[in-house]
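Worked problem 6 (solution included).
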Amino acid sequence: MSTANFNTRSMHINDNLNAILCGLRKVKKTGEGRYVAQCLFHEDKTPSAALTQKPDGTILVHCFSCGASGLDFCNTLGIDPSTLFPPTNDLRYEKKKRSGFSAWQLLYALHADLIRLLIIVNDLQKVGALSGDDREFVAEIILRLNDGISYMEGAR
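Solution. The predicted structure is:
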């Protein structure tokens, strides 16, 4: 990448961030590329909206009080949502490699299997192929995993 191209891209990224920041109230810089501001969607005594500009220029926006997203903020400010992403000369979409599943994704994927397992365990107990203690043990494991799923859903 040439220096001129880098400077143009860098200016474009900063313009995108400034376009969003200018539409917000009580903006405060909290770190390199990190800001908090009052949310546009509810009364805020203390700023609850967080903005982060990642090193690649991607801008993340989220209100920790009401859950408003970057798309919500862009729509309200009349800004094209594409400004949340860095400019690119490559018009093709290329899927990036994933590093694996998050804990939430893994637990959520196992949820249907857990329900099926509980049904099988109940059927085995009915025909006498499983003791009550074993059935209770499997049921406790399923309950703990369901609690984990509920916890992770709240943390998303």
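Discussion: The radius of gyration is 24 Å.
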